[in-house]
Design brief:
Largest sheet: 5 strands, antiparallel
Distance between the termini: 112 Å
Shape: rod-shaped
Radius of gyration: 37 Å
Strand order of the largest sheet: 1-2-3-4-5
Number of helices: 5
């Protein structure tokens, strides 16, 4: 007859060893998951940063360079008011003053339009005063800017008690020439 052996109870060390191994494996799995998630987020953030830095808004200095934007606003405001104002008695002075603030192909367009003013203004004794009521730099990229201009004009004519009032909107392309912003194009919209 055999005597059954007394049941062996595992020692505390033997019980703790698989639990430690299970805890170590769980910790390792959690660390690997955290690293994978962190790498995935880093890749996503990098992609978003690249997408944003390559956007038109990122290259538009009008949004980031307040001093340059203010300079464009001031000089384009003055240039538009010069170009769109005239006095029948001083047309030569008006054309000369406007020619100082325009550049490129717009110079030819302006002189063609001003030839019409030379025909019509003296008989009507017309004096037109242009005022920029509002403007905003839409794009500022290096030496080129696109400015949205809201323009009011008052035309005074001989024999008319009240001036003729006119309002318009212009998309002005400005070009920096010799440190000054000049009108390179102006289109009503």
């Amino acid at each position: 007859m055999t005597i059954p052996a007394a049941p062996q109870t595992p020692t505390a060390h033997e019980v703790a060893s698989p639990l430690r191994r299970l805890a170590a494996a769980a910790t390792l799995v959690a660390l690997v998951a955290a690293v994978v998630i962190a790498l995935g987020l880093a890749a996503w953030f990098r992609g978003e940063a690249n997408r944003l830095s390559g956007s038109a808004a990122a290259s538009n200095h009008a949004l980031a360079d307040a001093a340059a934007t203010a300079q464009v606003c001031q000089q384009v405001r003055e240039a538009v008011q010069r170009v769109y104002s005239y006095d029948f008695a001083r047309l030569d002075d008006n054309e000369r003053a406007a020619a100082e603030v325009i550049t490129g192909p717009y110079g030819q367009i302006f002189h063609q339009q001003f030839a019409r003013v030379r025909q019509l203004a003296p008989p009507q004794q017309a004096v037109v005063v242009a005022t920029v009521s509002a403007l905003a730099v839409k794009v500022l990229d290096g030496d080129r800017a696109i400015v949205v201009v809201f323009l009011d004009q008052q035309a005074h004519q001989a024999g008319q008690a009240t001036p003729l009032l006119s309002a318009g909107r212009l998309a002005v392309t400005a070009q920096r020439v010799g440190g000054s912003w000049k009108i390179a194009d102006a289109e009503p919209f």
